[in-house]
């Protein structure tokens, strides 16, 4: 400490207390930075505007060229416009396929021609699963019942009958549902297909909209191909193997079932806010000789 910064008592001894002095400025305080801004102070402002403009311009170019690169269908003509506005299913268009074959997926459903499983009502088509035990009884599902489908539409007779046997572990398909096809009435090669549907809710349900070959001219599945417009599940969003908030689309192709190349041509979509059983959605396929 300096001599001037200490107090001295009456005996001349230093007290050790620091004295702080200050003074106020009088008159206006000069602030030259207000009247004379720094040189090039405009650079950050215009640089920010330039970067924003380049970002917007780049985004616009990306959208434009992205849309321009999307293939477009040529002229198309209407093949089918089904609004389900009648009192019953139009059997001149739709065939109810009846079989016990599980459709190659191990499905444990019995596809029927019953109005309990598929019906038209209030301008909508309903596909509804029911329990087989409600028709033949619970015990018969598991043992001692011979089921033969006289109205079976499958070309393979082994998929038209089953005998439940508890010892052999053979049961009657425990669920009944519907599989509807236009194969005998309408077909399309190239075009636009739109299906507006609300998917079902419930464990073990697997809604699907498929396009199968009318004539398997290249051989049995999957040689002649298969287009799955959409598939989903009725399980809730918490289902670990993707539930009703997920959709998939797939192309099946290849020389044999074990060499099906579907894993190369499968896409998944997820709705992070809703599930596909909460309302109607329009599912669309566009197809020509160059793209799907």
Automatic annotation (TrEMBL):
GO annotation (BP), single: carbohydrate metabolic process
Gene Ontology molecular-function annotations: carbohydrate binding; hydrolase activity, hydrolyzing O-glycosyl compounds
UniProt domain GH16: residue ranges: 63-292
Keyword Transmembrane helix among UniProt keywords: yes
UniProt keyword terms in alphabetical order: Lectin, Membrane, Transmembrane, Transmembrane helix
Transmembrane feature ranges: 46-67
Transmembrane in keyword set: yes
Family as reported in the entry's similarity comment: Belongs to the glycosyl hydrolase 16 family.
PANTHER family to which the protein is assigned, alphabetical: GLYCOSIDE HYDROLASE FAMILY 16 PROTEIN, GLYCOSYL HYDROLASE-RELATED
Record protein name field: Concanavalin A-like lectin/glucanase
Native species: Exidia glandulosa HHB12029
């Amino acid at each position: 400490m300096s001599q001037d910064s200490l107090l001295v008592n009456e005996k001349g001894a230093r007290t050790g207390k620091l004295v702080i002095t200050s003074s106020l400025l009088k008159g206006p305080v000069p602030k030259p930075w207000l009247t004379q801004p720094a040189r090039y102070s405009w650079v950050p402002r215009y640089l920010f505007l330039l970067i924003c403009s380049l970002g917007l311009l780049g985004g616009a170019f990306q959208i434009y060229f992205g849309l321009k690169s999307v293939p477009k269908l040529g002229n198309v003509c209407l093949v089918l416009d089904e609004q389900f506005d009648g009192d019953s299913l139009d059997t001149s268009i739709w065939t109810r396929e009846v079989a016990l074959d599980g459709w190659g997926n191990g499905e444990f459903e019995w596809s029927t021609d019953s109005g309990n499983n598929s019906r038209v009502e209030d301008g909508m088509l309903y596909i509804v699963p029911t329990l087989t035990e409600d028709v033949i009884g619970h015990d018969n599902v598991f043992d001692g019942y011979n089921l033969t489908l006289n109205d079976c539409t499958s070309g393979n007779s082994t998929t038209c009958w089953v005998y439940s046997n508890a010892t052999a572990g053979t049961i009657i398909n425990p669920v009944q549902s519907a599989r509807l096809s236009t194969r005998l009435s309408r077909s399309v090669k190239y075009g636009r297909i739109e299906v507006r549907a609300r998917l079902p809710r419930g464990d073990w349900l697997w809604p699907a909209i498929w396009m199968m070959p009318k004539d398997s001219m290249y051989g049995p599945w999957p040689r002649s191909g298969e287009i799955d417009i959409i598939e989903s599940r009725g399980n809730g969003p918490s289902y670990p193997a993707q539930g009703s908030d997920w959709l998939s689309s797939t192309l099946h192709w290849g020389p044999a079932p074990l060499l099906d190349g579907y894993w190369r041509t499968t896409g998944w979509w997820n709705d992070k806010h809703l599930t596909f059983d909460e309302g109607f959605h329009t599912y669309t396929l566009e197809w020509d000789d160059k793209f799907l």
